[in-house]
Amino acid sequence: QGDPCSNNESMLYDADLQVMMAGSTFRKVKSHSWKKPRHFRLLEDGLNIWYKSRWAGRGHSTFLVSDVEAVRQGHQSEVLQSIADEFPPNLCFTLEFRGRQGNLDLVAETPEEAGAWVRGMRKLIHKAKNMDEKERLDQWVWDWFLKADKNKDGRMNFKEVRKLLKMMNVDMNEDHAFYLFTMADTSMSSSLEIDEFVMFYKMLTQRDEVWKLFQDYSSDGEMLSRGELENILRIEQQEGDGCVEHAQELIDRYEPSEMARSQGSMSLDGFQLYLCSQEGSIFNTSHKDLYQDMSQPLSHYFLSSSHNTYLLEDQLRGQSSLEAYIQALKRGCRCVEIDCWDGPDDEPVVYHGHTLTSKILFRDVIATISEYAFKVASDYPLILSLENHCGVEQQRVMAQHLELILGSLLLRAPLGGEAPQQLPSPQAGGPVLMRKIGCETLTDEVSDEDETVNPDPDTKLKMSRELSDLVVYCKSVHFRGFQHAQAHYKCDEMSSLSESKARKLAKEAGADFVQHNIRQLSRIYPSGLRTVSSNYNPQELWNVGCQIVALNFQTAGLEMDLNDGLFHQNAGCGYVLKPGFMRDSELPFDPETPQEHSGYAPLRLSIQILSGQQLPKVNQKEGSIIDPLVRVEVYGVPQDLAKEETSHIQNNGFNPVWNETLNFIVHNPGLALVRFVVEDHDKASRNDFVGQFTLPFTSIRPGYRHIHLLSKDGTSIPPASLFVNVSTSELTSGPD
């Protein structure tokens, strides 16, 4: 183990980080009228930013540098734009957080101070993103040491160690804790310095289940030869060809001992680093790349899709915000929704009509989309779902904004210049494709809200020619049944259906729905009754091939976990190719009866839940320790819906061991998603959520694997993980 202090030495020689460690007073800005001074400084660990108000007494807060995704300089947020006349851009910057956490908008006293923080934060973010497994581990050790060293004397006495164990979610017998402390205290000073603490941490994190696997294959019990590591890769990890080369690569990458590396062998430390790395993850690393065929028609893909994208909160009083579009596009969303209404001064506005949600300008939404559409997550086409409630005059203004702001990004005519015979593929150029809702005179379609809340014939709108001309491949038409759609088939027409109507069709005519979605796009949206921005289960609609299953991205929970889980693959580009049986017009598929399909090949899935590592605390009260259990949930065709869970482990979130096996039969692996959930058991009330990870069944790697858990918000919470042993096999006999 290297000295964690070395990670921080470079900070002492960096002028920008020196400014950050000295501390700065900024104005924290929440609105045009809310601007308050806050003192910020970078802590010595280089991991945390500390801040407090002048009047908070001893109270203060911290946040992790790794929680910050990016730094924007200047008036690059709605809030800072609102005070642009008051403060010049060289004093202003925005910290953009991961997940759904709001931005932090700050104004510095001087341009030099703003510049130092912008540069310093970018260096720290870059460093955090590019750490290897060993550096990350060193950093965690250093972080724990600083947290435990309450009196800041660079040493840790046994009282501080006992408090640390509680902070780490460990309920350890005091005698055993003292025994480990004494073993690590090689200087016999009744306190631990950093190198002794490293030894203490290693004893604390000794993984018996990893040691046992290591011992099973190591002939001398000390090292794995390259041949022995090859055997683990071939037999346990079920890797086929290339084990020889891969074993050597793993030794070169993860073995900390130079001597062992030179001898082509791996120590227990190196083996554990490999298992905890992304290469030891349950998620197939090759699926993180763009691995699917992107040359098929758009209707052959699932698209990550957002409903009422402009909202940050609920549907009745919530704030409309440009940040909501940025967050959705950062998550790989490829279909965003814009509700357009006539606004003052001939400028269309975007908000949830007939509600108290706030309003933003249509032109600002389009400018934000222009900047972020292809900047963060994807180069593949973005569909603008326009719910148009504007009169003809402001529709013309909308068309002007679209053409002027999007410029060459906007698709104005069919590719090749002729009437389309089939939908283009996602790789046909990354343009912004645009669709409409609410263009009654042109398309005989009603808007989302009209269909679910107010089916009033007076909602019919005249459509301006300028706006209708911009609709190329996604012309919205009213759905009149599958037979009618087939008889009047045009590849560039699509229908929008409410979740209830779509679910009814899926249940009653699943095979017809699948066939319809081979040829044409379908968009599904949440019920108008979901006023708190809750979501429906998207799996039911993916089961029948619906491509654009729109969810409220601002609302965390199971449904967005499934969405993130499906679209995590294929480089997170927002497009996932449907399974082959959902693109084959010759062989009908009905999700209600998967066993009747000619390609029916069910699999047995066996997951041995071995252990957990450093699970986060749910209750931050000192002395509170979780009682974790693991539940595995399968989502897919109706026959595949299943949940199994382990028993709970009393008072141990640090290194709980279960050694329990959960078994499933998966009738349709091509559509299945598997969700791992950790909860804090509570016999008196509902269990508390601790972490989760969701992935497609087809992206699961067999063998001994770590599952790196995510927060409720979908952000990583290192080093929290589960250690499992996964196997799949053909179902030879009938289901149990």
TrEMBL record:
This is Phosphoinositide phospholipase C. It catalyses: a 1,2-diacyl-sn-glycero-3-phospho-(1D-myo-inositol-4,5-bisphosphate) + H2O = 1D-myo-inositol 1,4,5-trisphosphate + a 1,2-diacyl-sn-glycerol + H(+); a 1,2-diacyl-sn-glycero-3-phospho-(1D-myo-inositol) + H2O = 1D-myo-inositol 1-phosphate + a 1,2-diacyl-sn-glycerol + H(+). It is a peripheral membrane protein. Ca(2+) 3 binds at residues 308, 337, 339, 387. Glycans are attached at residue 187. GO terms for molecular function: calcium ion binding; phosphatidylinositol-4,5-bisphosphate phospholipase C activity. Residues 467-583 form the PI-PLC Y-box domain. It is found in: Cytoplasm; Endoplasmic reticulum; Membrane; Nucleus. Residues 136-171 form the EF-hand domain. CDD domains: C2_PLC_like. Ca(2+) 5 binds at residues 680, 682. Its EC number is 3.1.4.11. Keywords: Calcium, Cytoplasm, Endoplasmic reticulum, Glycoprotein, Hydrolase, Lipid degradation, Lipid metabolism, Membrane, Metal-binding, Nucleus, Repeat, Transducer. One of its GO terms (biological process) is lipid catabolic process. SMART domains: C2, PH, PLCXc, PLCYc. Pfam families: C2, EF-hand_like, PI-PLC-X, PI-PLC-Y. Substrate binds at residues 496, 523. The active site is at 307, 352. It comes from Gadus morhua.
